[in-house]
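Re: folding output
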Amino acid sequence: MHEQLAGYIAGPVNAEDLAMAPGGEWVLTSGMTGPTAPLGRLYAVSVADGACNEIFPYRATSALDTQRFLDQPALNPLKFRPHGIDVKLLPDGRTELYAVNHGGHESVEVFEIDLDAPRPSLKWIGAVRLPGNTAGNDVAAVDDGFVVSTTGDPEGRREVSVEQAIAGADTGGVLEWSPGRGWVTLPGTQINTANGVAVSADGQCLYIGGWNSRCLKKVRRGGASADPSTVNVSIMVDNLTWSASGRLLAAGTYGTSMQEFLDGHFGQNPRLGIPSRVIAVDPETLATEELIDYGPDTFGAATTALQVGREIWVGTARDQGLARFRFPSTTRC
């Protein structure tokens, strides 16, 4: 058994991404479709006791916010295919959840979360379709909108192939959406296989995980110059989250290739076990520290890591539940 392993949490299936809800009582997870999950779901996991509740589609409601979003039909649960997620506490006290969706069309779905009841509930309030032929991966809330890491061309003028991605070509970047401006391509964010995305607390910097390229890229947002900087890392960087100390947590696999990963991910095995690591990244210097390293028998291939107290909860796109690891005793949270 892995020496840092604190246990497992049952319930979420294919929990590809995790986000802490305001107040710290609930961890929200996406639930990707897969061999044992024909329908996509969203879950809420209690920090206190690990109890898991499905919150979409179960008991979810809908009420389109026509002031922010175009007129559109309500989200069809039978077509929902979630990927990356994020959550934000709004100035008026409401909380919103953003979820990248591959079902039917590429979009970001927006939900209002009710955290006052004993069990969180969701209300779908709208969605924004991605432009051109772009496909989303991860999402991060910013200002009155969000940024999304994408593969593809926002103008729809050229196709991006898996072969190009494997060869190391820049296959996409980060787009930003707001109600007033719509979609904007952020300069300096182009990267091979953009995956996780995070925004600094002051909104000035973006961080992008390069999946096949095994790197992390930092870009200034909204300034006169993007001033990009990149550091190579030991993992195929998947999702990014913030730790309590202000460092980035990046999860991902190693010892495999993009093609091997995709073959396993799109195969019929409900569990994809690949050696995985969680690293902490200094947001200023991009210096990294390894926090967790586990083998394929411990848990599925890591796609996200979230600090929960003195633990790190790890999610995966192909396995049951979550894995809980203790922070190394010598590491600051």
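--- second protein (sequence, then structure) ---
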Amino acid sequence: MNRKLFMTGLLMLAMTLQAQTAKKFTLNLTDDGKAQMVCFLPENPSGRAIVGVPGGGYSVLSNSHEGYLASDWLNKQGIAYFVVNYRLPNGDRSIPIGDVEQGFRIVRDSAKVWRINPNDVGIMGFSAGGHLSSVISTLSPYEVRPNFSILFYPVISMDERVSHKWSCINFLGEEGHKDPKLVRQYSTQNAVRSHLTPPACIISASDDRLVPVVTNGVQYFSAMRNAGNECTMYIYPSGDHGFGFGPWFKYHDQMLQDLGNWLKSIPAPKENAIRVACIGNSITDGYGIDMRTKYGYPAQLQGILGDGYWVKNFGVSSRTMLNKGDWPYMNEMAWRDALAFKPDVVVIKLGTNDSKPENWQYGAEFKQDLEQMIKTLRPDLAQPAKKGKKKVKVAQPVGPKILLCTPIPAFKPTWKINDKVITDEIIPIQQAVAKQYGLQVIDLHTLMLNDGDLVIPDGIHPNDKGAKKMAEIIAAAIK
């Protein structure tokens, strides 16, 4: 009887595992097969996917409990899982970076076949794989950057004095790990960018003796929080280093519950959502608003528009429309990301910093620089107008709808921002360009002229209530 019950239990377990993972297969990421990706597709896909990056100090691949062991639990949640067995760097950091990026390309390119939402693909790395995951999350191009990151006891710093020495040496090389510039560049707490670095969950043990949590995971958390990005950190009392998904970890069940709850808190945009890119300076970025990823105007715009829209913030503080300004917007990663986002609607709100004397000395070029941005977004507008009744077929596809916002009023001349230059020179140029190219103007300057109480004490940046009013005005224009 006991043997019969035992065999029945084994059968039920096998059926359960089979129901969780519908298909398992391996793909080569390189022609020689030295880099591979092991794929686990769930029986009942939720549309979410995670790319797994094992640890091993960049000297070996610890892909059991820091790789494959997570497949059952993730597939049970309906999450497709892909473990990248990347090539070791041996001092050439481009090798593992390229392998993981290739894995992301394949997952997103195959999204329809594998029933995955390409806008809901995360990364999960362990130890040195956590470092590699943070590199992909901060430095890789938009097309292969994850939508969220899970970092288990990650190596973050490449300074061997406060990190795992051999991870630093193996990743940067014998000479590279002595180069302060490379050490800083790939110490990824320095690479976090507001809005551009995806939400992260960091999981560590307080007694980690191999990768000190204070100088690694905590540093990444602090950088994310200071940038206003969403980040959660779970530090368990004990567990040392390398517990991964191993059931021997004392807090294993609690960790799975915490991770599961965090994953549920990360919203996934609908695949067919209307994409709205918010381009701008610190006012778009949300300077002066704590947790601007929740309370800045683009975040509040998302709440007003609802899940039929996908609003992303590409604002960068201090930036100018002028390409000869002190901080030109079109030199930024945010501009490249905004283009790669392939938006349906673009909200442009630049001009405030251009009014500073050191920038407006180049004001004669404001019109051409604004036109450059518009024509990059809308290549069809770059075609010369032709006279005659017959319509000319344009080779380039029509791009996004562009909404051109005037700067909000500068209630104080902080940082030498000049409201008279804004009203008498910048806004007339914006209006003329909008008329020339058939764009819609949102006159925030006029609509917020009496709202001095909706800005922070510097007189330049809206507070959360001012951001809400901006969001309401822009939402009405979009709809």
